[in-house]
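Quick note —
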Amino acid sequence: MKKQRSVRAAPKTEKVNLFAQPDKGFYRRSILHIQCGGAIEVENCRAVLECTEDRVRLQMARWEVVLMGRKLQLESLNRRTLVLRGCISQISFQQAKREGR
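Predicted structure written out below.
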């Protein structure tokens, strides 16, 4: 006797408009650009919490980013972008502490 094979339905595909506007708040998200030459560009950083030659702590919207290394220095800082240079050896992320919690 021959075994019957079950026929699977093809997965439904959802149409995506590639030219649609991104979600509200998309351009306010924090972004880290890591360059091999020893530079990190950070967009939409809320605050610099600590800055020494060995450690830089940054406050993002929901995360705190800690950059460890040698000879770290803030090269530029403006309203939207921060540029950090040096020999970066470690990057860690932790959830930001929220007031009242």
